C-alpha cells in the first residue's frame, strides 16, 4: 500500500472509514495491510496454563521485552517464523527486516522491492519468506542468504496479502484488483486466477489441508473457495457497517476469524454461516488491523487497535483480559509466537516500532 | 474436514477427466495421502507429480530399463521402483534433493516384474521375478533375509505339476499374508512372517492369473486372469501356521461372489482397482482402439454402473485414488488422465445467505417470524449463544494416528508384531521439501 498509509485525514480517508459494501472506486490509501500469524503449532509449551475451563479464568501477563526500531515508514505486518527463532516485519519503506525475537537484534534486511510492502508469509520449513508489494509483484526470499529466489509477477495492481499452504508448494495472494491468484511456488508461475471480489482483497488464507481458501475484501464479503476447482463455495456477508479487512482459519480450520470496521472481531462457523463469538472493546474503524489466535498458553484472541494499544481477549468468555500499552501509533500488525507466550506488534507512523511482549510467569 | 462444503452427495465414482499429465508413463500410482502420483516410464525413470501444482517435483532416475512397478510406503516417504534391469530401488523422498537419495538397492538375478512394500514396514519388500519366483526381502538388522516363497507340494502330486510359474504376488492389506497368482490358475497364500504356504485356492476356469487386487476395507479381493474375467472373492481367514508342522495348508476351491466381464466385445482387462470404500470396482479394458474404464457397483450386487470413455488413446493402466473419488488412467501414449467427479458451479454461493431452490416454493410464514422482538432480549439470547465453548485446536483428523507407527494394534498378534519390529522411519509428520526450479530449467 501507499507508504503514507492512513496519515492524513484530509483526503478520501473519511469516506473509506464509512465504506459500505458498494463498489468503491476510491483508493483507500489508509489501509495498512493485515498480517496473519503463522499456523501455530498445536502442542502447548510445557509451562502452558491449564485450559481455562473452570470458573476461575487465568489472565495473561504480557510485558514489553524489546522495542525494535529501524523501519522508516509505516509497518504493515509482523510474522514469527514457524520454528519461532526469527521475526520478520515489513513496511512501506519496501524492506523486509528479519529480527531475533529473543534479543531484539536486527539480523538482515531483505531489499529488492521497489514499492512499499503490505504482507509477508513464511514457508512451513522457515527457509523461505514471501512478500507482497505495491510494485504488483510477490517475491520469495531465501531468508538465510537474503536473496530473491522467485519473483512472481502477474497481478495488475498492488498485492495486498499473501499466504503459503501447509505443504508450502502453493502460495495464494490477493491484490487490489480484486483478484486472488494461486501460484506454483517451485516454478514461480501463476496457476490460477480467481476473480474473487469487486474491491481490494485484504486477506487470503489456506485451511490446513489446502482444500479451501478464504478471502475477504473491502466489498464487505468473506468468500470460501475450492482450491482445486476455483469454485466459490460460500459467501459470508456481514452487516453494512462491518467491512471486513482480515480473515483467517482457526488452527484446526473449523472456524474463521474476521476483523471488521465496526470495531468487532468475529469467529464464524463457516459451515452454518453462524457468528459464534464477537470480540469488542477495541477501536477499528479505518485501518486494516489484523487479529490472531494465541494458543501457547491460555486461548486468547490478540489484535491491534486504533487507540495505539494491543488487546487480548479470552477466546471463550470474550472478555478483554489484558491491554498492552506502549505504541505511539495505530497498531495494525500483531503475531503470536508458535511455541512460547510471546506477541509481536507493529505500528504505523509516527511510532514505527515493532514491540515484543512476553508472558514469562504463569500467574493464575 | 470440509466434506459438507465440497461434496453435497456421498462419494461416488469419477465421471470426467480433470487433467492430463503428459508423462511418458506406462502406469501411475497415487501415494497414500493422495497428493502425489508416481508415474513409471519405460526409459527406466519415474516421475513424482504433485497434484496440487500438477507439476513434476522429483525424478527418480536410476534404472537402465523399463520400470515395471511402483509402490509407496504408508506415509509416502519411501518410493519403490522395480525394473527390468533386475533391480529394485527404494527412494527416500525426505532427502531435499532431486533426484531423491537412494535408500536401498535390491539386486536380483532376473528382471523384476513387480515389487511391493509390506503395508506396515517398508523394510520388508516382496518382489516377483520374470522367472516366476517370488521373494520376500527383509532388510531389517535382526531379520535380514531373502526368502523365496515356495509352493508346498503334497506327495501325491504329479511330477508335471512340480512347480507352477508365479505370475502375480501381493501382500494383503494387513500384511499378514502374501497372495500369489500362478500360471495354472491357482492362488497361493503364504504367511509373510514364516514364508510358509497356508492355503492353495484353485480358481476354476481362470487360466493364468494376471493380477490381484484387494479392497482396503471389507474382506474382498479380485483377480484378473487370462479368461478375460475379473472375479471377486470373499477373503477367507487363515490360522497362523504352526512351526514345523508338516502341513501344506488348506486346499480349497474358491467360488467367486461375482464375475465381471464384457459380454459383448469380450475384452480382456489390463488393470483393476477398488475405490477407497470398496463400493466400486473399476476395470481398465484392454481394448486396442479405445480408452474405456468399466465401473461396477459392488454395494449394489456388482451391477455394471458405467463405462467411462477417455478418448482415442488406448488404456494400459488404472489406479483409484486412496481417499477421493478420483482415478488415474494411463494411455499408451504415456499420458496420465486424472478423473474426478465435477461439481457444478453454484452461483448462489456468491451471494451471502442465499439459498438456491430447485423449484418454486411457496413461502409459508412461520408463526412468529416477523414479530418485533424486544431488543434487549435478542441481545441476551445472542450473548447466551456466544457463551458456547469453542474448540479451535482439536478435531484435526490429519495428525491423529501418530501412535500407529511402531506400536502394534493387536498385542499378541505375532504376525503384526513381527512386521512392526524395527519400524522404519516413515513417520507421519514428515514433509516433502519444495525444491525451487530454475526458470530456464524446462521439464
Automatic annotation (TrEMBL), chain A:
Segments for region (Disordered): 1-59
Keyword annotations from UniProtKB, A to Z: Repeat, WD repeat
Comp. bias (Pro residues): 30-49
Alphabetized InterPro entries for the sequence: Beta-prop_WDR5-like, WD40/YVTN_repeat-like_dom_sf, WD40_PAC1, WD40_repeat_CS, WD40_repeat_dom_sf, WD40_rpt
WD repeats: 68-109, 110-151, 152-193, 194-235, 237-278, 298-323
Bias-annotated ranges (Acidic residues): 10-26
KW Repeat (keyword) present: yes
Signal peptide span: none
Gene Ontology CC annotations of this record: histone methyltransferase complex
Residue span(s) of domain WDR5-like beta-propeller: 67-358
PROSITE patterns xref list: WD_REPEATS_1 (PS00678), WD_REPEATS_2 (PS50082), WD_REPEATS_REGION (PS50294)
Tagged with keyword Ribosomal protein: no
Protein name: WD40 repeat-like protein
Species of provenance: Suillus fuscotomentosus
From TrEMBL, chain B:
WD repeats: 30-59, 60-95
Keywords: Nucleus, Repeat, WD repeat
Top-level taxon of the source organism: Eukaryota
Subcellular location: Nucleus
GO cellular component: Set1C/COMPASS complex
Pfam families according to UniProt: WD40
InterPro entries: RBBP5/Swd1, WD40/YVTN_repeat-like_dom_sf, WD40_repeat_CS, WD40_repeat_dom_sf, WD40_rpt
PANTHER family named in the record: RETINOBLASTOMA-BINDING PROTEIN 5
Name of protein: WD40-repeat-containing domain protein
Species assigned in the record: Suillus fuscotomentosus
Amino acid at each position: 500500500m501507499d507508504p503514507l498509509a492512513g496519515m492524513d485525514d484530509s483526503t478520501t480517508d473519511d469516506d473509506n472509514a464509512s465504506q459500505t459494501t458498494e463498489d468503491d472506486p476510491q483508493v483507500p490509501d489508509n489501509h495498512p495491510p493485515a498480517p496473519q500469524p503463522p499456523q501455530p503449532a498445536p502442542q502447548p509449551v510445557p509451562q502452558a496454563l491449564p485450559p481455562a475451563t473452570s470458573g476461575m479464568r487465568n489472565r495473561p501477563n504480557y510485558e514489553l521485552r524489546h522495542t525494535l526500531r529501524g523501519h522508516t515508514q509505516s509497518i504493515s505486518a509482523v510474522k514469527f517464523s514457524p520454528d519461532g527463532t526469527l521475526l520478520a516485519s515489513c513496511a512501506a519503506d519496501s524492506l523486509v527486516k528479519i529480527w531475533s525475537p529473543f534479543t531484539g537484534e536486527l539480523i538482515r534486511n531483505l531489499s529488492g522491492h521497489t514499492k512499499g510492502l503490505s504482507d509477508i508469509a513464511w514457508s512451513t520449513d522457515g527457509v523461505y519468506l514471501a512478500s507482497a508489494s505495491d510494485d504488483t509483484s510477490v517475491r520469495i526470499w531465501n531468508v538465510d542468504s537474503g536473496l530473491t529466489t522467485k519473483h512472481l509477477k502477474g497481478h495488475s495492481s498492488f498485492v495486498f496479502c499473501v499466504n503459503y499452504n501447509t505443504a508450502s508448494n502453493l502460495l495464494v495472494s490477493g491484490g487490489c484488483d480484486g483478484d486472488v491468484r494461486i501460484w506454483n511456488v517451485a516454478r514461480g508461475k501463476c496457476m490460477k486466477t480467481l476473480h474473487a471480489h469487486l474491491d481490494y482483497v485484504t486477506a487470503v488464507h489456506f485451511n490446513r489441508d489446502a482444500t479451501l481458501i478464504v478471502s475477504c475484501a473491502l466489498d464487505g464479503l468473506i468468500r470460501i473457495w475450492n482450491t482445486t476447482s476455483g469454485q466459490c463455495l460460500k459467501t459470508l456477508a456481514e452487516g453494512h457497517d462491518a467491512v471486513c479487512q482480515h480473515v483467517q482459519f482457526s488452527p484446526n480450520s473449523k472456524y474463521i476469524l474476521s476483523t471488521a470496521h465496526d470495531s468487532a472481531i468475529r469467529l464464524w462457523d463457516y459451515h452454518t454461516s453462524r457468528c459464534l463469538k464477537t470480540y469488542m472493546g477495541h477501536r477499528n474503524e479505518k485501518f486494516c488491523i489484523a487479529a490472531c489466535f494465541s494458543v501457547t498458553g491460555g486461548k486468547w484472541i490478540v489484535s491491534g487497535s486504533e487507540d495505539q494499544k494491543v488487546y487480548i481477549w479470552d477466546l471463550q468468555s470474550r472478555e478483554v483480559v489484558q491491554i498492552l500499552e506502549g505504541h505511539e501509533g495505530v497498531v495494525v500488525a500483531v503475531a503470536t509466537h508458535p511455541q512460547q507466550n510471546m506477541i509481536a506488534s507493529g505500528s504505523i507512523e509516527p511510532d514505527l516500532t515493532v514491540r515484543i511482549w512476553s508472558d514469562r510467569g504463569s500467574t493464575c | 474436514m470440509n466434506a459438507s462444503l465440497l461434496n453435497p452427495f456421498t462419494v461416488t465414482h469419477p465421471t470426467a477427466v480433470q487433467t492430463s499429465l503428459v508423462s511418458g508413463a506406462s502406469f501411475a500410482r497415487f501415494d497414500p495421502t493422495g497428493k502425489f502420483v508416481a508415474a513409471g516410464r519405460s526409459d527406466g525413470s519415474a516421475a513424482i507429480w504433485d497434484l496440487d501444482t500438477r507439476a513434476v517435483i522429483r525424478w527418480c532416475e536410476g534404472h537402465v530399463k523399463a520400470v515395471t512397478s511402483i509402490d509407496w510406503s504408508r506415509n509416502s516417504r519411501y518410493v519403490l521402483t522395480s525394473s527390468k534391469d533386475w533391480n529394485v530401488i527404494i527412494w527416500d523422498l525426505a532427502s531435499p534433493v532431486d533426484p531423491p537419495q537412494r535408500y536401498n538397492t535390491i539386486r536380483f538375478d532376473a528382471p523384476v516384474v513387480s515389487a511391493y512394500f509390506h503395508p506396515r514396514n517398508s523394510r520388508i519388500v516382496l518382489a516377483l521375478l520374470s522367472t516366476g519366483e517370488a521373494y520376500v526381502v527383509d532388510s531389517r538388522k535382526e531379520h535380514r533375509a531373502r526368502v523365496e516363497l515356495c509352493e508346498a507340494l503334497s506327495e501325491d502330486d504329479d511330477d508335471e505339476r512340480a512347480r507352477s510359474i508365479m505370475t502375480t504376488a501381493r501382500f494383503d492389506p494387513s500384511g499378514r499374508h502374501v497372495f500369489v497368482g500362478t500360471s495354472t490358475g491357482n492362488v497361493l497364500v503364504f504367511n509373510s512372517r514364516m514364508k510358509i504356504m497356508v492355503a492353495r485356492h484353485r480358481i476354476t476356469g481362470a487360466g493364468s492369473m494376471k493380477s490381484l487386487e484387494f479392497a482396503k476395507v471389507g474382506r474382498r479381493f479380485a483377480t484378473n486372469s487370462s479368461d478375460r474375467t475379473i472375479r471377486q472373492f470373499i477373503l477367507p481367514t487363515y490360522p497362523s501356521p504352526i512351526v514345523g508342522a508338516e502341513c501344506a495348508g488348506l486346499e480349497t476351491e474358491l467360488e467367486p461372489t461375482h464375475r465381471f466381464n464384457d459380454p459383448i466385445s469380450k475384452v480382456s482387462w489390463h488393470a483393476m482397482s477398488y475405490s477407497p470404500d470398496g463400493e466400486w470396482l473399476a476395470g481398465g479394458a484392454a481394448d486396442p482402439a479405445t480408452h474405456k474404464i468399466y465401473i461396477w457397483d459392488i454395494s449394489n450386487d456388482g451391477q455394471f454402473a458405467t463405462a467411462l470413455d477417455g478418448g482415442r488413446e488406448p488404456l494400459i493402466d488404472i489406479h483409484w485414488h486412496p481417499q477421493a473419488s478420483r482415478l488415474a488412467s494411463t494411455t499408451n501414449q504415456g499420458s496420465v488422465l486424472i478423473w474426478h467427479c465435477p461439481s457444478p458451479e453454484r452461483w448462489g454461493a456468491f451471494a451471502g445467505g442465499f439459498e438456491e431452490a430447485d423449484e418454486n416454493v411457496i413461502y409459508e410464514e412461520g408463526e412468529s417470524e416477523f414479530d418485533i422482538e424486544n431488543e434487549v432480549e435478542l441481545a441476551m439470547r445472542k450473548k447466551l449463544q456466544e457463551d458456547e465453548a469453542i474448540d479451535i485446536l482439536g478435531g484435526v483428523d490429519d495428525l491423529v494416528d501418530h501412535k500407529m507407527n511402531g506400536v502394534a494394534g493387536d498385542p499378541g498378534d505375532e504376525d503384526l508384531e513381527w512386521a512392526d519390529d524395527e519400524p522404519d522411519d516413515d513417520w507421519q509428520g514428515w514433509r516433502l521439501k519444495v525444491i525451487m526450479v530454475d526458470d530456464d530449467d524446462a521439464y
